[in-house]
Each structure stands twice: as structure tokens, then as C-alpha cells.
Amino acid sequence: MKLKQYEFRINQNKFEYEFNSEGPNGIIKKIVRFSQISTHGFSYYNLSFGDWNNETGSIDDFVVSNNKDAEQILITVAATVISFTNLFPDAIIYSEGSTDSRTRLYQIGINKYWQEISPLFEVYGLAENEGLVPFEQNRRFKAFIGRRKIN
Amino acid sequence: MGMSEVKNRIKFKSGIIDPKMKDHGNHPFFVKSNEASKRVIEKYGLPREWIEEMKKSDKEKSR
Fold it and tell me: What's the domain range around A38?
């Protein structure tokens, strides 16, 4: 089975990625950003992504675009993570959805492609009452943190 | 740009650098997301194994 991603563009500082979702609701621009944050003597990148709303000229927080391409979007976001960590191999990346259902969607994506992800990335999940623990398939997490494995 | 293949199921294509692309680093959407992530990271820190590796690496650098 071949899974297709959308083609994406990268801005000059290499922290922001854009692609167009195409489906029954038209073309929706998606923006993925890796923001560097420093705290307690270390730094990490917060991965966040949202839909660009042409009408408001802004990014929508909680919009559900429902363009019937969730899988292709997930694959594309994964491709931006690969691309970003090719450029910044030591980057620690943190991510959680802007809503519980989005976090759940990320979890489904990581679960589904764990076979592909695990040789490349070390991933921890934020578990209720336990803090950060190594990612386990079919376990519910509130957020994720990962970095490229040194090969 | 090159392509990286991960096993046979996914073929990831790299992106194209677009000098015309804007930067939304100061957009409230990202600022809010960054602040939320910082609260979590400040509460839970990094995985213990990573912190130990970092300490070890810092020690080696300072020698």
C-alpha cells in the first residue's frame, strides 16, 4: 500500500511548513510550525498546526475542515517532521492537539505507523498520573515528545 | 531535493523552500500553543533517560 502525502513548502527560516488539503470542501491551506522554546536549561520545538482561514486572514484554532483527507494530512505532517529533523537532527519535538480529539488523531497516526516511526524516532507519551513514559501502542496519551534516533 | 524512503509503506518527499512564504511565529495561535507546551514541559520535564544523557554529554564537554 502506497500512502500519498501532499507536497509542502518550507519558509526560509525552516521552522514553518505549508501545504494544501484538497477535498470536498475545497482547498484548505495548512500551516505546520516548529517553534523553538527554551526552559530549564534545554530547548525543544513545539509542533503545532492549524488551518489558514482566507476569510479572516488568520489561523483557526478549533475548526474541523472535514476534507475527507485526514490520513493524507497526517502523512504530510509526518513528512514535515522527517524534513525538519533532517535539518535539525538533535531537535526534541513536543506535540499535543489543540483539542482532545486532535490529540487522539495524532495518537491514532503514531499507533498506525509505529512500525515506520519506531526505527527513526524515540517517542514518549504523557500519561495521566505517570508523566512521560515510553510510547506504547494502544495506550492513551495526552501529549507526545520525540527525537530522532542516532543511526 | 531528495527523497527519503521509510520501509515500503511510506515514501516521504521533501519540501521546497519558498522565499515568499510568510512567518507566523508571532501569531496568537502559535503563541498560545507554545505557552501550553511550556507549561507541560515545565511540569513534567524531559524523559529521565534524555536528561541523564544530556548531563553526561555536558560533563564530557566540560572536561
Answer: 9-148
List the one residue out of A101, A127, A128, A106 whose CA is nearest residue A117.
A106
Task: Say yes or no: B57 contacts chain A, CB-CB below 8 A.
Answer: no
Residue B2, domain member (yes or no): no
Number of domains making up chain B: 1
pLDDT tens-digit map of B11-57 = 678 899 999 999 999 999 999 999 999 999 999 999 999 988 888 88
Q: Which residues of B touch A11 (CB under 8 A)?
A: 17-18, 21-23
Tell me the nearest-neighbour CA distance from B3 into chain A, angstroms: 10
Residue B39 belongs to a domain: yes
Contact by Cβ (8 Å): A95, A60 = no
What pTM, to 2 d.p., does this model score?
Answer: 0.90
Question: Three-state SS for B20?
Answer: coil
Count other C-beta atoms under 10 Å from residue B50's C-beta: 17
**Residue A21 domain-assigned (yes or no):** yes
Residue type, A29: K
pLDDT means over runs of 10, chain A (151 residues): 84 96 93 95 93 84 79 92 94 91 88 90 94 93 94 66
Torsion, Cα of A24, A27, A28, A32 (10° steps): 120
Structural contact between residues A84 and A14, judged by C-beta atoms closer than 8 angstroms: yes
Structural contact between residues A124 and A144, judged by C-beta atoms closer than 8 angstroms: yes
Look up residue B25 and give its three cell numbers: 511565529
